[in-house]
Amino acid sequence: MADLLKAIKTIVDNPIPDLVSYYQGKNRINSIGDALECFVKDIFAETLSQSEQALKNERYSEVFSYIGNQNNPPDLILKNGDAIEVKKIESLKASIALNSSYPKSKLYYDSPLITKHCRQCEDWQEKDIIYVIGVPENKKLKILWFIYGDCYAADREIYERIAKKISSGITEIKDVEFSETRELGRVNKVDPLGITYLRIRGMWGITNPIYVYDYIFQTQATENLQVVVIMKEEKYLSFSPESREEIEAISNVNFQNQNVNIRDPNNPAQLLRAKIFIYRI
Fold this sequence. Notes:
There is one protein chain. This protein is α+β, with helices and mostly antiparallel strands. The chain has one domain (4-155, 204-280). Helix content is 31%, strand content 32%. It has ten helices and 14 strands. The chain has helices at residues 4-13, 19-27, 32-45, 53-63, 116-119, 149-152, 156-171, 209-212, 233-238, 241-248; strands at residues 64-69, 72-78, 83-88, 96-99, 106-108, 126-137, 140-148, 177-178, 185-188, 198-200, 204-206, 226-232, 255-264, 267-280. Strands 1, 2, 3, 5, 6, 7, 12, 13 and 14 form a nine-stranded mixed sheet that branches. A three-stranded antiparallel sheet has the order 8-9-10. Strands 4-11 form a two-stranded antiparallel sheet. Strand 6 and strand 7 (140-148) form a beta hairpin. It is globular and about 70 Å long.
């Protein structure tokens, strides 16, 4: 079964310093965003060296139970495994725009933001989610993060409480006609003709992990790609012994495997035992 540890092993065994150049000749891809999405699928499916798209598609079908779109999370779901959300930051210091989707510690079956096809892709109720965050510089990928949501985001009740409070406050405005919506609110008949409406949307964002985890990782002054993986220790121990043995056996001098303590997203006064893997190409 495909998992993140095997994907990281694939990256170490097949270093690609420039993703755009690598995929440009294979798929006519010119943007870092498109190249990043292809790369993520290929490392999990172990199809980096496969040039035939038809054969890649067959392998994708074996590895992924769901491949989504840009409008609904997640981007990918591993069969009987984790969900994956791919994000590209425009610069090393920029925050991440999540738009209408608040940050997730887990992916839940009952989330109103996911599609019917995502719910029906397999029998599931809750999934761990990996945020894959690419940071380009000078048209090349500078840093690539793989962060489990429960290391990065608080429980969903934290975000939903704020959204519900705002939404309920909006509907208390007098002499305004509202209608049912999945957004924060919708006002109908704003003008005298009753032909104009106002959509009230939440636009979520989250701080760049380069600042969130600056106490356990510092970028180096290099033009090449740096890969950083963060997960709870209990998540690491949930992987198969085979996957753990493979990644622990990596002897590459550019690869680091460390035990660290990270702040609990729900209570920063508490520290969580975690694993960080760092690979510099």
